[in-house]
Amino acid sequence: MAAMSIPPHEPAEPLPHEPPGVPQPSRAPFPQPLQQDETIWALLAQLSGLVGLGVIGPLIIMLVAGPQRPFAKAAATEALNFHLTVLFAVIVSAVLVLVIIGIFLLLAVSIAALIYSILAAIAVGRGETYRYPLTIRLVS
Fold first, then answer.
1. N or C: which end of the chain has fewer CB within 10 A?
2. Would residue 7 count as lying in a domain?
3. Is residue 15 part of a domain?
4. Is residue 18 part of a domain?
């Protein structure tokens, strides 16, 4: 029997994860080499909202760890801005509960906050900066 030759497989083009026109959160490596404790401080800032600290956790980390750790300060500032935006959205949704739509908005804001906090923690754990989408940048 003659040996059959299998043609080389050409890789297909990768499929985009998001439809065109949808803004992607930026994930860029931090320009300086990171120390382990700096990554831990940044992770704590990102995950503080999940444990109920909301705005207080990133604010404390930004003030305490910020002067010595620029990566932790950048992550805490971004987390603080995100949690302030979430707080504002929750207040607006709570007012709109009177019109019924607020219940759905509260649910949507809660799910989005959970997902974006986890995505930010994953990115920060890899040493990348993470910019939350749809965030009002009040603190710089």
1. N
2. no
3. no
4. no
Main-chain dihedrals φ then ψ at residue 98, nearest 5 degrees:
-60, -25
**C-alpha–C-alpha distance, residues 49 and 129, integer Å:** 18
Calpha distance 39→122 (Å, rounded): 11
Whether 23 maps to a domain, the answer reads: no
Q: Facing residues of 27 across strands?
A: 130
Q: Which two tokens stand for residue 119?
A: 């995505």
- Dist CA 34 CA 37 (whole Å): 8
Q: What is the DSSP string of 77-125?
A: HHHHHHHHHHHHHHHHHHHHGGGSHHHHHHHHHHHHHHHHHHHHHHHHH
Q: How far apart are CA 44 and CA 58, in angstroms?
A: 8
- Cα atoms in the Cβ-side hemisphere of radius 13 Å centred on 85: 19
> 0.85 cut: is pTM over it?
no
Q: Which range of residues forms the domain containing residue 126? A: 29-130
Flag whether pLDDT at 43 surpasses 80: yes
Question: Which of 133, 100, 139, 135 is CA-nearest to residue 25?
Answer: 133
- Copy the structure tokens of residue 5: 């030759």
